[in-house]
Amino acid sequence: MAESNPLPLVLLTEQFAKLPGIGMKSAQRIAYHVMEMNADEAKALADAVMNVHKTVHLCKYCQNYTDRHVCPICDDNRRDHSLVCVVQSPQDITAIERTNEYKGVYHVLHGLISPLNGISPDDLKIKELLARINAGGIDEIIMATNPTVDGDATAYYISKLLKPLGVKVTRLAFGLPIGGQLEYADEITLYKALENRNEI
């Protein structure tokens, strides 16, 4: 932004530019939009951001975001708790749930193993997954990480950890494009990928 802009507006723009998919021009437009809000609207936006940080945390079982002790999916007795779908991010759960076909539960890794980006297995929620399996009652793990180099490496790494535990480990049968993102896949493609998953 030009130096003629007030410093608080410049700082706000820089914060918006840190969001994924938001470039400097979009960030500047959002910052100006915020400036055009009335005080009540601006406060509501700020309160919503702060409220998320105060009330939303990780589910003690699946590591998905929730404002409860246990998320609604883990708390649902109609779900098959012996079947766990392992995903990279909470957005992937939303994508799979749109199919209305998957009846198991989930585990969110919150990332993928990526040595180039300095992300090791210890940075992910793998220990929590192992604890769930060791507690018993899980028959199958579906690795639903994205079909990328990091996604495949993460799926392979976790499958090697789980094989000795006597749990069946499968991988989505991707009719998804290589390098694609689960959250952008359509429902039919995701359903077919779930239906035709393969053991790894």
TrEMBL record:
SMART domains: TOPRIM. Gene3D superfamilies: 3.40.1360.10, 6.10.250.240, RecR Domain 1. InterPro entries: DNA_Rcmb_RecR, Rcmb_RecR, Rcmb_RecR_Znf, TOPRIM_dom, TOPRIM_RecR. It comes from the Bacteria. The keyword Zinc applies. Residues 82-177 form the Toprim domain. PROSITE patterns: RECR, TOPRIM. A zinc finger (C4-type) spans 59-74. Keywords: DNA damage, DNA recombination, DNA repair, Metal-binding, Zinc, Zinc-finger. The keyword Zinc applies. GO terms for biological process: DNA recombination; DNA repair. GO terms for molecular function: DNA binding; zinc ion binding. May play a role in DNA repair. It seems to be involved in an RecBC-independent recombinational process of DNA repair. It may act with RecF and RecO. NCBIfam families: recR (TIGR00615). Belongs to the RecR family. This is Recombination protein RecR. It comes from Ruminococcus albus 8. The gene is recR.
